Amino acid sequence: MRTVFTNGHFHTLEHEGDIRASLTIEDAVIVALDEAPSAKDAVVDLNGAHIYPALIDAHLHMMETIALASMGEALCDFVDGTVEPHDLHGVEAKIRAVAEQNHAKEGSLLILTNYVSAAIEEGRLPNRRELDSWASGADVWVLNIDGHSGSCSSSLLEKLDLEGLAPDGIFTGPAHDANLGKFTACLASRITPQALMRGIAHFCNECASFGIGTVCALEGNDDIERDRMGELAAFIAQRLPIDVRLFPQYMDETKLDRVRSKMAASRVGGCMKWEMDGSVGSRTASFFEPYKDGTRAEPYFRAGELEQILQRFAHEGYQMSAHAIGDRAIDQLVDILAALPGRHRIDHFEFPSAHAVESVCAMKPFVTVQPGFTWIDERFLHGYERFLTDQQIANQVPLSTLMHAGVPLCGSSDSPVQSVDPFLQMRGMREFPLADQSLSGYEALRTYTVNGAEMLEEKKGQLREGYEASFFSCDIDLETCAPSALGGLRVTDMWLHGKPYRRLSSNMRALMRLLVTPPHKI
Predict the structure, then answer these.
(1) What sign results for the dihedral spanned by CA atoms 257, 263, 265, 268?
(2) If you compute the radius of gyration of the chain from its CA atoms, what whole number of angstroms results?
């Protein structure tokens, strides 16, 4: 049966300002625009709303987001333009309160997220002895907001057999990134079915509330013998109401083989094993020039070793995705990709050199960006100004230059490092610290729609005939509204594959229904 949606402003995103009066769908596909309904058609009146293609988050970590939504407690919050708590005394009080609330004791697990070391007066994570004292001997895992550092209590350090690597319990750079699988495996062993479903429901409902219909899930760790968390991610992803496109973060062919059959296309990479460097917050992003305090960070790979790995996957037909933030790491990656077949992804591309910008404008890979983090850092965290020189800050990704050169910028959140909120990222694109590199409302929307669909080679991300009938409505014109209007924005309604999105419940009955849902390719 055909359904005609009327009385709305249908933003096709084929061209800026291209708005149609109606949309007709049949069998989950858009079949017409500006067509009057017939007597046989169902009609949906949208009451003057603005309609857009469902959004695509091109880079997030689904299982971490799900697990932390159900089991994690945020340590720091933004309060009146500052981060609280702002010192270790306040952190101690917060951890003691969380431990008491959760009846923490020896053997129990506390996961504490959203720690902002850059905004803490002491400028560091709590060490193992402090966590032991503050959390009643529980197994404690603290995750820094930069995604590349954290700390844990003595009991957890012993269980993971990592005492020799981090005697004080504080992990940063390669010591953190190369062992994250051990932490996630511990988390997977502790999560209950009820907590799992609670996290799944929160994740899907949150995505739908922001108009996100597709996510690129970067999942898996190579540093453990059997990555059951990665396998669970693939199993769950096949059954979710939102579309998931898996990027396995493996270089290990055995692990990759366990999930490849579930995928619709040959994709690999993301973060973890596919990280060329770390992050600014942990001072492990690799720059040619030292950080303001004199710290120097090396790339995670030797050039010859990395070239062999990338050549192997490229010649096997995989689209590769790799994390690179500092100019030195970006140059290393770009120079290798330029000589390889296929069209690949560079994730973050946060501080590229002039050489890298010129190369990328020529070869046009997909560049996955998260300017919402820059927007937050400039206003709340002040990590860049604390750690980076003025010249390094001035070399942030030139969004407008890349887009006007035809480089497809793909918007994303890097959740759980940030909220999945796409409108925060779009605001970051429109209020970029380098004012001449800010994007327009239309250009920001394209990063979350047209460009993501091009990267996935799928007919979605636009309202046009023959394309997927997934779209959302909201009360404002996202092409012309002021950037400030994006703050706190939620969509009004969401349709996925022609059907209204129905919120997932978090009870065990919902989990049973999910488990028996027929799988689809991811």
Answers:
(1) negative
(2) 23
What is the model's pLDDT at position 426?
Answer: 98
CA distance 9 to 22: 8
What is the token pair recorded at 200? Answer: 């799944």
- Side chain identity at residue 508, one-letter code: M
* DSSP 8-state symbol, 167: T
Closest CA to 376 of 68, 76, 91: 76
Contacts of 16 (CB under 8 A, 6+ apart): 440, 442, 479
Give the pairing type, strands 23-26 and 3-11: antiparallel
The amino acid present at 476, given as its one-letter code, is I
Strand 149-152 to strand 29-33: parallel, antiparallel, or no bridges (unpaired)?
Answer: unpaired
Comparing CA positions, the residue from 244, 273, 256, 292 lying closest to residue 59 is 244
What is the C-alpha separation between 145 and 156, in angstroms, rounded? 20
* 3-state DSSP percent of the chain in helix, strand and coil, to 5: 35, 25, 40
Point out which residues pair with 248 in neighbouring strands: 219
Q: How far apart are CA 140 and CA 151, in angstroms?
A: 8
Structure tokens at 95: 């951890």
How many residues in the chain?
A: 522
Parallel, antiparallel, or unpaired for β 139-144 and 109-115?
parallel
Is residue 62 a contact partner of residue 215, using CB atoms and an 8 Å limit? yes
**Which three-class secondary structure state does DSSP give residue 403?**
helix
* Distance, CA of 156 to CA of 154 (rounded, Å): 6
Please count the other Cβ atoms lying within 10 Å of the Cβ belonging to residue 251. Answer: 16
Q: Rounded to whole angstroms, how far apart are CA atoms 122 and 369? A: 30
**Are 23 and 29 within 8 A, CB to CB?**
no
* Among 269, 520, 285, 267, residue whose Cα is nearest residue 388: 285
Give the separation between CA 426 and CA 56, rounded to whole angstroms: 13
Angle at which helices 354-363 and 327-337 pack, to 10 degrees?
A: 30
Q: What is the pTM (predicted TM-score) of this model?
A: 0.96
Amino acid making up residue 206: E
426-459 in b/e burial notation, b at 16+ Cβ within 10 A? Answer: bbbbbbbbbeebbbebbbbbbbbbbbbbbbbebe
Q: Are 448 and 411 a contacting pair, CB within 8 Å?
A: yes
Q: Averaged in consecutive runs of 10 residues, what is the pLDDT profile of the chain (522 residues)?
A: 96 97 98 95 97 98 93 87 92 95 88 91 95 94 91 94 91 85 83 94 98 98 89 96 98 94 97 95 95 96 95 97 98 98 98 98 98 93 92 97 98 96 98 97 98 98 98 98 97 98 96 95 96
DSSP state of 468: B
Token pair for residue 21?
């009066």
DSSP 519: P
Judge whether 406 and 350 are in contact, CB under 8 Å.
Answer: no
Q: Cβ(343)–Cβ(318) under 8 Å?
A: no
Angstrom distance (rounded) from CA 490 to CA 234: 28
